Amino acid sequence: KLDNHPSGRHFLHIPGPSPVPSRVLRAISYQTIDHRGPEFGAFGLELLQKIRLLFKSDDPVIIYPASGTGAWEAALVNTLNPGDTVLMYESGHFAALWKRLAQRIGLNTEFISKPGLEGWRGGVDAKAIEERLKSDPDHLIKAVCVVHNETSTGVTSDIAAVRAAMDAANHPALLMVDTISGLGSANYEHSGWGVDVTVSGSQKGLMLPPGLSFNTISAKALAASKTATLPKAFWAWDEILEANQTGYFATTPATNLLYGLSEAIDMILGEGLDQVFARHQKLALACRAAVKAWGLEVLCQDPSVYSPVVTSVLVPESIDADALRKLIHEKYNLSLGTGLGKLKGKVFRIGHLGDCNELSLLAALSGCEMGLAAYGFTPKASGVVAAQNILM
Ligand code: PLP
After folding, report:
1. Which of 36, 40, 125, 337 is most exposed by smallest CB count within 10 Å?
2. Which of this chain's residues are annotated to bind substrate (predicted)?
């Protein structure tokens, strides 16, 4: 019933879950096998090795059968103690949700925020992090947590700059990064950027259904986990890592999603990571050109951190972004992302991630353009034509 659309296919352009390619769907449909049997061990060993390539990681990747929120929690409970202070940066709605989670599990959170929407229209301010760490001579701050690609705003922050800020402050806090919506679409370097725990998820750039999430763990984070006392059982790294040594999992893995993951990694590596990132950059550039042509504003104000994954479009006060989205969904069978938190009703978000190409983006832009006109807003010029000029 759910995919019983009147005709043609549904255009899923929310910033995740993203469309799942047929190749991945087929892999997911293979028979579920014995997760303790010999075939599984060989499959698991290969998968756990090749997934490191996506994170550009020399360190192990833990795979949870959970959504991204689970992996957020896992990163914190494995490395920290009750009452520890974590420094977080308010880059948008997901940064705020991670902070709320940290508070709920008994951490003391410090949030670097800017007034109003200011912090939501640019990247993480590494200088502000450096200054705060320099004023912590007793090293009470145990972790710095930032979001790489803020899905709510369409901003991809410079994680290498955050690492450099921490080094400049000579501060030993762990660096934890959420790249739930960045991985597989925007360049990410777990080892090269000196990240201690990378958190990610399956349903965005990896082109999988929701249901898997990841922690990639540096040696320093692993060492912290040996003494960390926040309560944990299901999320505990030690038992999982031990089982992973032989390609198995501590609990029943999401076998069929792992088949899909293996296939998706092959697809991404087959296209080439650099080619995948360049494709996303080009689609994002075309999308922004369309927004400009319509006479609307991209939420992100700093071109150096425009997201290759998602573009948030600010609408004038005369438009209720959610009513516009509803109209577009009903009329053109196109799903766009809603405005989250402070942005409710103010933006709609166009996802251009994962299994997306020129024509799928152009179709989405066309739906937006017709929807804007149907809503009563006359676009200044054709965004579709502006995007075509970039994509030709
Ligand atoms: N972090 C970011 C950047 C996200 O985009 C999301 C989900 O969209 C989450 C965290 C939460 O992940 P999940 O909804 O899979 O639990």
Report:
1. 36
2. 349
